[in-house]
Amino acid sequence: MTGSDPADMPIGPEHPLEREVRLLRARLDVVERRIQALADANATLARGLQGGPLEPPGEDRAAQAARLARELLLAAGLVGHAARSEGERPGPGGDGGGTG
Over 34-69, what HEC string results? Predict the structure, then answer.
């Protein structure tokens, strides 16, 4: 047994609405993870823009925060090549910009 609760196991065939609910929950989980990644990146950018008066001169917190925020978004698959779904990937000679 894989550790599943026997009470969670369907007795008969799965009802179409049960399948729909299961699929919607999976999609919701994905959306929640993406929102959390966006919130983390936003907080990182905000901290980078809030340089304090005691900060040493020459330290570019905003640029460092921007790099870190981009890394967070890349890791979450929200920017760059990993963020595109199969249908959005450009074909040969296309730039994916959608401008024609």
Answer: HHHHHHHHHHHHHHHHCCCCCCCCCCCHHHHHHHHH
